[in-house]
Amino acid sequence: MDIFYDSTTCLVVLIYWLIIVNITYCILIKRRSIPSSMSWLLTIYIIPFIGIAIWFFFGEFYLEKRHKRIAKKIWSISNQYLNQLKSCKYIFQIKNSEVATSLFQLCKHRQGMSGIKNNKITLLTDNKKTISILIRDIYLARRNIEMVFYIWKPGGLADDVARALINSAKRGIRCRLMLDSAGSIDFFRSPWVQKMKRSGIQIVEALKVNLVRMFLHRLDLRQHRKIILIDNYISYSGSMNLVDPNLFKKSSGISQWIDLMTRIEGPIATTIGMIYSCDWEIETGFKILPKLPNKEMLKNTSNQNSSVQVIASGPGFPKNVIHQALLTAIYSSRNELIMTTPYLVPSDDLLHAICTAAQRGVKVSIIIPLYHDSVLVKWASRVFFSELLEAGVKIYQFKNGLLHSKSILVDRQLSLIGTANLDMRSLWLNFEITLVIDDNNFSKKLSLTQKEYISNSELLDKKIWSNRAYWKKILEKIFYFLSPLL
Prior knowledge:
The protein is of the alpha/beta class. The chain has helices at 2-29, 34-46, 48-59, 64-77, 79-86, 101-111, 127-140, 157-170, 185-188, 192-199, 268-284, 321-332, 348-359, 375-382, 385-391, 424-428, 440-455, 462-466, 470-482, and strands spanning 120-124, 144-149, 174-180, 202-206, 227-230, 234-238, 257-258, 261-265, 307-313, 336-340, 363-369, 394-398, 402-403, 407-410, 414-418, 432-438, 457-459. It is an enzyme of class 2 (transferase).
């Protein structure tokens, strides 16, 4: 028995150290940021068994190779389609405003296309009104409706959208719905799934969460995009999930979530449709490329001077492109930079860019929620406040609900609206989408919205912040240590 026990112990210890060595090799061989690498190394050595479990589920990008392979195949097969799209020269903008030029050049070189003009862009700031307009568009649809959301929470207005989709499907409109498995867990447990399928709606559960797939991809890799496409002409995107704002997360006591959405009529729907097509094929194996834009769709649009780019991130899409876009936008600012985000855990590069902008005379304001739904992110974000305040950045804490909108306004001309938070997961992991809008009229509306946010916020006082309790500073440091893992 002693020999068996000793042999088993030696085998377990050997396997344990082989796993530790293998993880250490994976951390060191892949060029990560130093804080991230150090956090992982300390985690697996200080709390070994728990650290190994965390690494196994969250450390490695298990799905990356598979998605890259499929996405590469998709874009290779689609070369003819892309060339046909590029031949529609009447939709591409040749020149951008001074502040937007660098960012649009980056997007062109990274994604292969210039910005698209001839779009009618509307900024939607009220979730109830947004859903009301969406329901109207669904009932008016003539050919197809495609949607992807991180969260679809049944109840209230969300059920009205479901009924509108069912009605459209029954009258012959092709409807496709793609929802994240983790974010929309309540939807997939509801009767709506079968009701929709019986009406002819195709439903895909993206990045399924189950025991088998736990070993195939990271649990925190999520389909975080919010996209609606109608008739290859109308498109929606922004921070809003498909939920009733009066019902969603009422138990948290934070009041309503505040979101921004864009509704766009015009050829940009084709570009957004390509992203949706890629996501759909990755999940189902079927290609659903959108129809090419025609001159007929340009009749009802205006503002030839505006331009829109779409940036998509996630496994298989251009690496770090949203991170690069944010850095380019910040460094392009000359006068004013206003940012809204619910989660502020920036990379070192982003933090440096924001502080540098303030130190070279740009009026930099960051608007974040005062009340938060994530304790971890709330405390992790606080460790950045001192450096931002010292550089001259104004930090506003929004009081009237949970500010969930993700927006950047540069020099009251260049706007970025999308799904990506200023945290590690959004920048380097999730499937996200950001719209880059070079449009003076749109930027004026965004500026008014951001000013309204500021009027409902508390300005963080530098002196009061520096005198906060010592135990709070310790907590902030602890969560800062964990921030690369968030």
